[in-house]
Every structure is written in structure tokens, then in C-alpha cells.
């Protein structure tokens, strides 16, 4: 990870999105080498190529050089432009893979971003659109990103391997971000969820809801899980079902968990009852880990804190995920910012150990945005 | 988990068995208690940098002297010892002493000297309680996350 002059150099295919997103925000070019050099099919995969194309779409003046084998990439970021766009996401990864990065970049566009993404809306790998809608949007609102057209809309659902889903993400722009103090997570107030099913019996949704409730009802009464059964053109190309749960705390923070059925023709058949129960248990695990932000959004909040005004931001998180730890290292490489990290244990010893992260924002401001 | 097992073994077999080499030294013990308080009080103090993750014993955090490392080695040796002796229910005190002395060459000198005095068996008192306290200390030791994330550079820059 030695930086050579202005350009940052990295090795390997890991944390691909992190590097390109941070490069775009900081304006520092990156060179990524040795991408899957020892793999049977070396070089960047289709979903990564699709991601690069997306980055190219939302920016203006980006220079991308990829060598013949695809094992080496040079990325010189342009300006974040935005506007009304659409993108066909590769079905190897879900729309969440692309949306996660867009959430990091969207507030800093020249023109408000309104993008239609097509592909897989729910899979087992990436955070689903449902979860990002329920957790990432309120998180961005805490930083002062808000407005009429700030939403994620699911028009069609698509399950792997076929995909065929469609969503619209629109986000207003901001010149600067507010610093935040998120230190008291509060207690769990209510649980909401969506049990979705496409191209399977509509009864499956009810079975998921019932089994998830059987676990969660023992802890609190305020549980409401919607069933979302889509038909016809809105149901994508492959059958499947799943559940996403979100717990809201008294202080207005959201913790999420989700599970999806195995893609058609892969793995064993998943019973809706098992899926519901396991997902409820995953939510309990997430609540045990606790903090003001769940593990899916840890890196997003750290990025927003980094980019905030030159003031102190604090956040209490549960145990840091490996992805977040690497993200902290990348933040240091790109923005020369280091967080103060303290472990916190409480006298009641409820849940896992918490981590309090503190930083002073770099005072990032959206230069592309015209001042009215 | 290992430690809990040992506690149980102590309960079942002879009580006067050395379970924790790092809890037998009163001087060291007092030190640790003091440090435990410091841990909570001033986190920004230099001390916190030395503090280590819960994977090591508390002693490693207190000071990085060789002295402190040795009892840790002793610990594992004695664990085997405990397992060995607990099978044979009847065990002379003398035999046990000899066994211990064999291992004792890595120990601090004045320890063997004190065995001849009145307080010779002082280290054997409250073994269970000491073991429990050591266990709790392990559980509560605070890892230096900043160091884990950023490496040693974090210390220099501070």
C-alpha cells in the first residue's frame, strides 16, 4: 500500500469498490495491479467491469486504462456529474453492490442523481435494496442529506440467477455534510420487515412472516412484517423469496438483517419456515452487536464522518467488521485521516463490546455544485 | 475455556495444587490491581498503549519484562501437570513440591527462599479465588483497537 507520488497503488482485487469510490471523492488516481493473477480466469470480472462503467457514467472526465488481461487497472477520477441516468447491473452481483457505492457518492454530484438500476434486487451476497432503503437513507438524513426526492423505489424485483429487477434511486446534492454525534443507541422500539416472494406461491410470504414472528414476539409486541408478492412483469426472471428485517431504536437508529432463498438450481431447497426463523435470529445477533449503525452501514457512516465539516464527529458502533477495518485503513491512505478508536463496555454488559469512533472531518465540500 | 476446566479440576482433586503461576506472586498481583484501576481512569495515558488484547495475559500489558512472560510459559506446563496428577488421587505434598521445583528454575529466585519461611505456603491460599480473578481480568482487558487497525504507526503519530 505504498503511495507513489500522487497516485495510490494497490494489489489484488479486494475492496475494489472502496478504492474507486475513495479515489473519486479524493481526486487521487489509483493503480490496481495483480487482479486475480493466479486465477484460472485472470483479471477483472464482469460485475467489476459493470461497476467501472457505472462510475464512468456518473462522472465527467474519468480516465480508465485496463491492460489486455484485465489484471491491471489505472483509474483517474473525473468530476461527479450526476443527472438522470440508467444502468444495467451485472447479474453476478445484486443491485445493492452498485447502490452501496452510489450512496457514498450521490450527495456530492453536480446535478442531483436520479438513476434507474436494473438487475438482481435481492441475493444472498450483498445488502438488498430493501435493507439499504430502510437503513442507509435515514443514516444519510442525519448528515443533512434530505429533500423531497430522496428515495429508493423498487419497481420490479429480480432474483438470481435471472435478475430482471428494477429500482430508482434519487438523491439530492449537498455542499457540505453536518458533523454528527451518535453515541446513545437507545433501546429497540419496534421491528419492521418485508417478506417478499416472486414466481412462487404467495402463501410462502405468510409462512415466513409467521415463523419470524414466532421468534421475535417473545421480546417485543410491536412487530409488523409486510408481505410483498409480485406478479407478472414485476416479478423478474427467476423464482425466489426472502425476508429483510429492520429494528428501530428509541433514538431513531436502524439495525437490519436479511436472508434470501437459494437461487434456482443452486443448493438445497430452503423452507420458508427455516428462513424466517434464521433471519429473526440474525436480527437478534445484530441487536446483540448493537451500536448506532448496523454492520452493513458501518463503512458508509465512517466515510460520511470523514467527509464532514471540520468538526468532531462521534459514533458508537458494534464490533467492527473486517470490511470496515480495511475501510479505515483506506480512509487513512486517501484522506490522511485517522479515527480515535476506543472500546466501550457497559456495566450491565449488555450485548457485544462497543467501539466509539471519533474523528475530525476533512472539511470536504462539493465543488461541483453551483451555489445559488 | 481451558481455564474453567482447570478450576474444576482443582475442585475435584487436591486443593493445594498450583493452578496459576501468574497469580502466586503477591507483588505482581498487587501491581495488576493497581493497573486495572488506571485502565479505567486515564485512557489517554501512556499505559493504554502498552495494554494489549485479551488474547494475552494481563501481565503482558503491565510491563514487557521477561519476568512477566515466564509465568505464562509456566502456566501451560503446569496445566499438563495438573492433568497428570489429578488422575492419581493420593499424592504426597513432597512429591508435588519436587515436581514444582523441577519446573521452578525459570522462576524468580526469592520465591524458593520464601518456601522455607513461615509464609511458605502463602501462594497456595485462595487459589480458586485468584484463578477466578485472573479469568475475569482476561475477560475485561481492553484491546488497543487503534493499534490493531492502523498498526504501530498509530503510536508514533500520537
From TrEMBL, chain A:
Keywords: Nucleus, Ribosome biogenesis. Its main location: nucleus. One of its GO terms (cellular component) is nucleolus. GO terms for molecular function: RNA endonuclease activity. InterPro entries: RNA3'-term_phos_cycl_insert, RNA3'_phos_cyclase_dom, RNA3'_phos_cyclase_dom_sf, RNA3'_term_phos_cyc, RNA3'_term_phos_cyc_type_2, RNA3'_term_phos_cycl-like_CS, RNA3'P_cycl/enolpyr_Trfase_a/b, RPTC_insert. Belongs to the RNA 3'-terminal cyclase family. Type 2 subfamily. NCBIfam families: 18S_RNA_Rcl1p. As part of the small subunit (SSU) processome, it plays a role in 40S-ribosomal-subunit biogenesis in the early pre-rRNA processing steps at sites A0, A1 and A2 that are required for proper maturation of the 18S RNA. Activates BMS1 by promoting GDP/GTP exchange. Does not have cyclase activity. Part of the small subunit (SSU) processome, composed of more than 70 proteins and the RNA chaperone small nucleolar RNA (snoRNA) U3. Interacts with BMS1. This is RNA 3'-terminal phosphate cyclase-like protein.
